[in-house]
């Protein structure tokens, strides 16, 4: 079953099993906090732009918010009609280095179940028209860059709020004590909901509240602070916004600089943990007083953020088999030969494979722990950074600035 060296398999000392909680500065939930709105031909009932601000409301007015019972109250959703637009300012800057900005519309599936427990039909038929709009983003609220090549984006993914409550007889109870999904966790899937039960949909969403998450790479130089939805006149489209979600950062973003997704713990010492899924990397700051192990650093993240850690216990120790963050989730124990997490140690510029397991390796002030999913990558971790805008984007921004100066 086991192949490769122990240092790549990252065995953890079984004696280390404590779960820690601590302070620190978590990335604040990204929401919209200011709206500029032109309704177009939207119905007057749904012209309250403030409905798109803030967090999702888990209570629709008829039970819980879930894929078979989308938001419908004028207090929860705003509609952009043909010839209209909606510009939202984000509460927290979002790094343009991935699919970090989520849009929650009011997609609802028809319930094909016989008992009202939530089941889609073969094509996941919806309850009404799916939202569609041209989307653009901006750093300063003046110069906007269109996504998807300027073509309209279709918002076909559902929203789910509660994660531990079934739908019984077409109704889901609501309570402040119920567990709910994360509005800040990207959902990177879509289009796979046919013949799915409610439990299957929740499993696919993987504790994300769902929504449609937009790729911001190649858009702005430093951070996305505004998002704009435009519905063309005569298009027959409409756009409904319930809320905005995003994967924020706890540090000040700079062009080409690193992106710190979360920082946890307390104490005078600080180390970094870098998780590289292959398509995307994430950097976390870990604060501590007395020395902690690499395993304890992962546990701190799992206790205090959306990060998830899975261990497999053997007689000789524990194995890191699963890491989950930012919509990426990879699990494996190496039984296929190349499906495992490799463990690296670094100093902020160079990396080397760890010669010991994370359960015995002690962090030191300024040290770096790196994790790489194999087979996505067989090299050292890459840091999460703000990418440079594409040449086309830079040219367009220069033209816009020149035109503004000439006015």
User: How many strand units?
Assistant: 21
Span from first to last CA? Answer: 70 Å
Helix content percent band: under 10%
Q: What's the overall average pLDDT, rounded?
A: 89
Architecture overview:
- The N terminus and C terminus are likely disordered.
- This protein folds into two domains: 142 residues, Ferric Hydroxamate Uptake Protein, Chain A, domain 1 (Beta Complex), CATH 2.170.130.30; 215 residues, no CATH class.
- It is globular, with a radius of gyration of 23 Å.
- It is mainly β and 407 residues long.
- The longest helix is centred in the C-terminal third of the chain and has 16 residues.
- It is built from four helices and 21 strands.
Layout of SSEs?
Layout: H1 6-9, E1 11-12, E2 32-38, E3 78-80, E4 85-94, E5 99-104, E6 131-138, E7 144-146, E8 153-155, H2 198-205, E9 212-215, E10 224-230, E11 239-241, E12 243-246, E13 260-265, E14 269-276, E15 281-288, H3 294-304, E16 308-314, E17 317-325, E18 328-331, E19 340-346, E20 351-353, E21 368-374, H4 391-406
Parallel strand pairs: 13-15, 14-21
Antiparallel strand pairs: 1-17, 2-4, 3-11, 4-10, 5-9, 5-12, 6-7, 6-8, 6-10, 14-15, 16-17, 17-18, 19-20, 19-21
């Amino acid at each position: 079953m086991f192949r490769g060296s122990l240092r790549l398999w990252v065995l953890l000392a079984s004696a280390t099993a404590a779960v820690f909680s601590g302070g620190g500065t978590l990335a604040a939930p990204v929401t919209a906090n200011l709206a500029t709105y032109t309704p177009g031909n939207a119905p007057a009932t749904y012209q309250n732009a403030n409905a798109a601000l803030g967090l999702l409301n888990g209570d629709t007015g008829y039970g819980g918010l879930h894929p078979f019972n989308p938001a419908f109250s004028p207090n929860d959703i705003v509609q952009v009609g043909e010839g209209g637009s909606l510009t939202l300012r984000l509460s927290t800057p979002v790094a343009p280095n991935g699919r970090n900005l989520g849009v929650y519309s009011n997609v609802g599936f028809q319930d094909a179940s016989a008992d009202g427990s939530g089941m889609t039909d073969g094509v996941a038929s919806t309850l009404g028209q799916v939202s569609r709009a041209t989307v653009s983003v901006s750093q300063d609220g003046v110069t906007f860059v269109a996504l998807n090549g300027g073509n309209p984006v279709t918002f076909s993914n559902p929203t789910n709020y509660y994660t531990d409550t079934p739908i019984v007889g077409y109704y889901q109870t609501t309570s402040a004590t119920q567990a709910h999904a994360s509005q800040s966790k990207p959902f990177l899937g879509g289009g796979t909901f046919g013949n799915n039960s409610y439990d299957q949909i929740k499993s696919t969403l993987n504790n994300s509240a769902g929504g449609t998450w937009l790729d911001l790479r190649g858009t702005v130089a430093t951070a996305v602070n505004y998002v704009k939805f435009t519905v063309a006149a005569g298009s027959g489209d409409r756009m409904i916004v319930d809320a905005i979600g995003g994967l924020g950062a706890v540090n000040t973003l700079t062009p080409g600089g690193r992106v710190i997704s979360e920082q946890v713990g307390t104490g005078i010492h600080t180390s970094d943990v870098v998780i590289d899924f292959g398509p995307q990397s994430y950097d976390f700051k870990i604060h501590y007083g007395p020395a902690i192990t690499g395993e304890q650093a992962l546990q701190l993240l799992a206790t205090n953020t959306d990060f998830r850690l899975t261990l497999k216990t053997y007689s000789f120790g524990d194995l890191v088999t699963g890491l989950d963050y930012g919509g990426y989730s990879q699990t494996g124990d190496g039984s296929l030969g190349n499906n495992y997490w490799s463990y690296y140690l670094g100093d902020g510029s160079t990396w080397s494979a760890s010669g010991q397991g994370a359960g015995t390796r002690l962090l030191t002030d300024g040290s770096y722990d790196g994790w790489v999913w194999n087979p996505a990558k067989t090299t050292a971790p890459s840091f999460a950074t703000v990418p440079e805008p594409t040449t086309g984007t830079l040219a367009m921004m220069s033209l816009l600035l020149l035109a503004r100066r000439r006015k």
